[in-house]
Inverse folding.
């Protein structure tokens, strides 16, 4: 088996792959073969650098590829933990209608991290289209897939406090907030405005999503309106770049 790995490394060199990609490929093979079992730690960066005869920077790039593939999680002062034996597929979200967005993430698990009433400062009031000082109910959640410990999304949601009892009702959250609001309050969300952009994660966001600071991410801001054009909900969802894919199909009538 060792000879096979050497041969593949040589093939990679012939193909012109950078050294970090060669090392990442070799580590993936070792993980898949059980040499590094799930739950165990990879050798320290300094030891991997010595083993492969590479710099610490090259080692970090190799580990980043393993992290992006969903095989490992890198934790400060702990090490690089093996999470899976084979690369995880990205979460794919089809969005072709309002119903798709209302049911967004129903096949995932959601955990409420923080919730509180907040008063709008100037910036928040501008984003929500309301007067300064108005109260909204803010909820922060983390979303994961069953059996996958790494988050696929961190969401900050602002809910209209005109929704009676929203503070206590959100505590029993088990699915998409927008769908819950429609069911409980008997209203219908008739319009959703969505903007999507690429962002770079700061230290706090990276820690929540278990990636390295500065990693690329996809940020989606959604505004949910009812039939009277009232803003019911504003959600800011941040997805690690390698763990999420939007899928949209457009048809011409």
């Amino acid at each position: 088996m060792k000879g096979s790995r050497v041969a593949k490394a040589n093939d990679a060199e012939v193909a012109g792959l950078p050294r970090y990609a060669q090392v990442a490929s070799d580590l993936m093979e070792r993980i898949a073969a059980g040499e590094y079992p799930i739950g165990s730690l990879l050798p320290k960066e300094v030891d991997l650098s010595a083993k492969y005869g590479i710099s610490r920077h090259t080692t970090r790039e190799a580990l980043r590829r393993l992290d992006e593939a969903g095989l490992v999680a890198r934790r400060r002062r702990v090490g690089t933990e093996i999470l899976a034996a084979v690369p995880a597929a990205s979460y794919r979200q089809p969005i072709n209608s309002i119903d798709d967005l209302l049911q967004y993430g129903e096949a995932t698990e959601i955990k409420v991290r923080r919730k509180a009433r907040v008063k709008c400062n100037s910036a928040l009031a501008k984003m929500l289209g309301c007067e300064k000082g108005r109260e909204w109910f803010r909820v922060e959640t983390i979303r994961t897939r069953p059996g996958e410990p790494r988050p696929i999304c961190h969401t900050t949601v602002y809910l209209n406090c005109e929704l009676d009892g929203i503070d206590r009702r959100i505590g029993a959250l088990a699915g998409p907030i927008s769908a819950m609001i429609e069911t409980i309050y008997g209203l219908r969300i008739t319009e959703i405005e969505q903007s999507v952009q690429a962002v770079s994660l700061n230290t706090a966001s990276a820690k929540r999503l278990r990636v390295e600071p500065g990693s690329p991410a996809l940020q989606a801001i959604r505004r949910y309106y009812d039939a009277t054009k009232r803003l019911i909900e504003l959600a800011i969802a941040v997805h690690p770049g390698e763990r999420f894919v939007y899928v949209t199909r457009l048809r011409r009538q």
Observations:
- Residues 1-15 have pLDDT under 50 and may be disordered.
- The longest strand covers residues 189-200.
- Residues 2-82 form a domain with the Arc Repressor Mutant, subunit A fold (CATH 1.10.10.10).
- The radius of gyration is 22 Å.
